[in-house]
Amino acid sequence: MLHPQRSLSELPKMSAASQVERAVLEEEFNWLLKEEVHAVLKQLQEILKEASRRFSMSTPGLESQLKQENFILGSST
């Protein structure tokens, strides 16, 4: 529900157009949660994994387990 504070008793007071709009918005919201949120969270997880792999901070005792990548900054001028 988009408006959990509204009770079911208020629904008859809403115009038919408002009820249809609310139903459409709720359907779009549910689709967004089902289809898009998980995909975006998966992408973020992969980005964070890659960033942690590339830019790992050294921790005492773990140096031998981590392979650090070095980057050289250059200029074209």
TrEMBL record:
By its UniProt entry, which InterPro entries does this protein fall under?
A: RAVE2/Rogdi (IPR028241)
Q: What is this protein called?
A: Protein rogdi homolog
Task: Name its cellular compartments.
Answer: Cytoplasmic vesicle, Secretory vesicle, Synaptic vesicle
Family, according to the entry, reads as follows: Belongs to the rogdi family.
Per the record, the domain of life is: Eukaryota
